[in-house]
Design brief:
Elements (H helix, E strand, L loop, with lengths): L20 H9 L2 H16 L5 E5 L5 H7 L9 E6 L2 H10 L6 H4 L2 E5 L5 H5 L6 E6 L10 H14 E13 L7 E7 L2 E11 L4 E9 L5 E11 L3 H10 L4 E9 L5 E8 L8 E8 L9
Parallel strand pairs: 1-2, 1-4, 2-3, 4-5
Antiparallel strand pairs: 5-12, 6-7, 7-8, 8-9, 10-11, 10-12
Helix pairs in contact: 2-3
The structure holds S-adenosylmethionine.
């Protein structure tokens, strides 16, 4: 019999008052398993074997590292190292991503709180170098001067094993240069992407991510970014200047409704439309190439 004194479970109302911004970010923009599948597919296509070691630069909560460590299947014990300057997302990742792994997988994931340009990062990792280095969600765009980004790309090349590849993403198209706000409904909240300011003279953009809830509360500017909006030709030129023998762009297929279908294929022509997101893969060819 139900009475007024029956104890009910409290209903979780998604609200800014209790929201965890990293959990919201994870739900709205991250798909570590998809990124891992992409790296896996491309590396295997380049080398005819599967990659073992990954470094995730600008790793935040290092979700990709943790997905990587468990993605090898039987007989492939993948290792990962995350690098980020900020202890806060690292601590979140330790509690949520790392904590969810079993002990053997956990032992194969390392995290370094450091600047990606630092000597500590250059010296970290397997003796022969990493099979893959990934810098996703446009984070390397914090390197806003050409000389600095070039230094980073050169350092990445120096940290790769033979046959290794650097995986980057990029966005662009006419909309990327505009000040705009886009929102998307997610489960229990609305994700808001704000391009707050774009300076056409130096190419620097200021963006933020916010979250809105059904109870009317919001977390505006939960994450803020100041980036140089690098173009694909600029990035490709710098990768070649950094010494990479090949730079491949993977362009997203069309869903037939004006959007992307989530499938990225190597392309030589890209129709930007109003906006695009793509992957860039820089490498020196397969591991069995003749020595330099
Ligand atoms: C946009 S977040 C991306 C996080 C993660 N890669 C993702 O996909 O969600 C950018 C991250 O880069 C980190 N960061 C910025 N500059 C850095 C640097 N020089 N070295 C290492 N990490 C840096 C920030 O602390 C932040 O966690």
């Amino acid at each position: 019999m139900q009475t007024t004194t029956t104890r009910r479970r409290p209903v979780q109302v998604p609200t800014a008052r209790t929201a965890d911004r990293y959990a919201l970010y994870m739900a709205a923009v991250q798909e570590p398993e998809a990124e891992v599948r992409f790296i896996d597919r491309v590396y295997r296509g380049l080398n005819g074997r599967r990659a073992v070691s990954l470094r995730e630069d600008f790793c935040g909560t290092f979700g990709i590292c943790c997905a990587w460590a468990t993605s090898g299947g039987a007989g492939l014990e993948r290792t990962a190292l995350g690098v980020d300057l900020d202890p806060e997302p690292i601590a979140w990742g330790v509690a949520h991503h790392l904590g969810a792994l079993d002990e053997p997988a956990r032992a194969r994931v390392g995290v370094l709180q450091a600047d990606v340009l630092s000597e500590r990062v250059r010296r970290a990792g397997p003796a022969g170098g990493f099979d893959a280095i990934a810098a996703f969600n446009f984070s390397y765009w914090v390197l806003m001067e050409r000389a600095l980004l070039l230094r980073y790309l050169r350092a990445c090349r120096g940290s790769l094993a033979r046959g290794g590849a650097l995986f980057l993403d990029a966005f662009g198209g006419p909309d990327a240069h505009r000040e705009l706000t886009e929102s998307r409904r997610c489960k229990g909240f609305t994700y808001v992407w704000n391009q707050e300011r774009y300076n056409a003279i130096d190419g620097v953009m200021r963006c933020s991510i916010g979250f809105r809830f059904r109870d009317g509360t919001e977390l505006p500017r939960a994450f803020r970014y100041t980036w140089r909006l690098w173009t694909l030709p600029e990035i490709a030129d710098m990768l070649r200047e950094a010494g990479f023998g090949s730079v491949d762009v993977y362009w997203e297929g069309d869903d037939g409704k004006g959007g992307g279908d989530g499938v990225f294929r190597k392309a030589r022509f890209g129709d930007a439309g109003n906006a695009f997101i793509c992957y860039i893969v820089a490498h020196d060819g397969p591991a069995d190439r003749p020595a330099d």
